[in-house]
TrEMBL record, chains A, B:
Family annotation (InterPro entries): Homeodomain-like_sf, HTH-type_TetR-like_transc_reg, HTH_TetR
Protein name stated in the entry: HTH tetR-type domain-containing protein
Lineage of producing organism: Bacteria, Bacillati, Actinomycetota, Actinomycetes, Kitasatosporales
DNA-binding region: 35-54
The organism of origin for this protein: Wenjunlia vitaminophila (Streptomyces vitaminophilus)
GO MF terms, alphabetically ordered: DNA-binding transcription factor activity; transcription cis-regulatory region binding
Keywords: DNA-binding, Transcription, Transcription regulation
Regions annotated as coiled coil: none
Amino acid sequence: MSPAKRSAEATARLRASLIEHARQLIAREGASALTTRALAAEAGCAVGLPYKIFADRRELVTAIVDAELDQLRAACAELVQSAGTGTVGGNLTRFATAFLDSPAIALSQEIFADAALRQAVADTAENGGMGPSAFPDVLSRYLTAEKQAGRVAAHVDEHAFGYLIASTLHNLLIAGKEWPHPTRPALEQMLTATATAIAAGQ
Amino acid sequence: MSPAKRSAEATARLRASLIEHARQLIAREGASALTTRALAAEAGCAVGLPYKIFADRRELVTAIVDAELDQLRAACAELVQSAGTGTVGGNLTRFATAFLDSPAIALSQEIFADAALRQAVADTAENGGMGPSAFPDVLSRYLTAEKQAGRVAAHVDEHAFGYLIASTLHNLLIAGKEWPHPTRPALEQMLTATATAIAAGQ
């Protein structure tokens, strides 16, 4: 193995390690805690090191989102597979929670306020097959599967409801504090009420 | 009447005129058309005049939103009064259209991207009784009235649906072009499908 190759591998390992530490930092203390100094402290490295790996904060944030795409993809797959098991309200709530609790999501206000960053993140998500339209789509597919399982009424338009629910979650990500944000129990109650309203046999 | 009094009145008239011209300009050509130069041309005044009335663009934008609050209030009142008439889907669509077509709304991307402006607009709307939580509330009240009119099923949670529909509209205002925006006919179809799903006797 050439020294150049080792160096590239070491850089890749360091990059992955910094991203993982950044995700832990955000998960524990929120997006505002993600400073270069705090990240260096979390990772136990020199303060200047993150700057050598990521050209700027945009590159770091985009890398964090990229690393989160696997988790979001898994949450989407789990939602569709959950059709016919548990309760519809419970399945929707588990998906909503995974979506809203993602460290990538904690960065959404920052991403949204910066047009260049927003475009970079949208491109990254799109390339990973998780662009914004993936969310209405996966909710529609889940509701279609629940129709087939006999738990959503046949007359319900699953595309309309997939879009309504995805829009509500997306709005919670990007809306400021002026918008009324429900507590998690209130969100669960709302999604359960939605599931009840569209249940078969109502 | 003292000259000072006349001058204040003339300034107020000029201010109101500039706001009205700004609203017409936005309604006709979109938010990006609102430049000081274009506004002066629209109002037929000197290019420097808007700067004498509005300290900066934030002040102009906040004044436009303030002027729109009456229209939004009227749309809310009309929605609640429409319960029991026409169709539920049609009433929701008329409200959604009034909300999304408001010139104040055309400015929402700009407002959202600027934290200070966002706060100023939120305060203005809140003071006018039209803060963001007014929208889930008015939709809930409308659905309650439709329940009483026998057109929404008794088991439907109108707070959940008021929040879902308001969130979907709010998300359309603030989400970027990455988010899938329905055409107006698709929006009407979606709201009609929602109304069908929660209709009494389904």
